[in-house]
Amino acid sequence: MHKQFGVQAVNLCQEPSEPIEVRGLLRKVVLPLPVRLLYETDLMLTVPVPKVHAMTRLSLALKNQWGVIPDIMRLRKHYLFDKAIVAINQRLRPAVLCDGTWFLDGSGPLSGDPVRMDLIIAASDAGSFDRYVSELMGMDWRRVGHLRQAVKAGIMPASLEQIHFNAPPAHFRTRTFRLRRTLRNYIALSGFHSRTLTWLGYESWFGRVVLHGILYAIVGRPVSPQPSGQAADCNHSAEQSR
Hints:
Layout: H1 2-5, E1 17-23, E2 28-34, H2 35-39, E3 45-46, E4 51-53, E5 57-59, H3 61-64, H4 81-92, E6 95-108, E7 113-123, H5 126-136, H6 145-153, H7 183-192, H8 195-202, H9 205-219
Parallel strand pairs: 3-6, 4-6
Antiparallel strand pairs: 1-2, 4-5, 6-7
Helix pairs in contact: 4-6, 8-9
């Protein structure tokens, strides 16, 4: 890609980072963000694929920035997700170019029903995109925690009347998307908003060996194990809420 287009690919895990603060329930929590994105980027373009998401209900443009946290265990911060993703987007302010060839219905991101939509959607900001596309999908944004936080923070309009668009979202709606959680989803959801349960499930010996062993015996593994000797990086963490 570099030879053909002169584009440089960068692993953000290997870039310097700077902490930003997110206000938790009792104290402020620090999240690292790449310095390159904070200070050295004239235009950040995020390219989401719209999904019904088993943990957050919707995964659109705002949530897409969760992947810029240069930490393979960023799932440790899931309990802060709604506030953290808003804080990240307040700092980065990306424009949006959506690959809407396929949407995902049901119980994404690891499973679900692909829906052919054949759309390309561009937006000047992630909040307007999320409000528009949630309407296109027929899903109530008020039931999505991080979208409620985004409206409260002023980075997403509550009303479509606050957005300039060239065609109403209803024009492209072919179905009403619905969240349908599986047993695995409910098990994962029990720890998603809990710092303690996340530690127990993913970092303790009991969780990694015993609890995951029981889970996989009941519902199977979500993905194939990584081949031995293959190095992991922050873009390939095995987590439920990618």
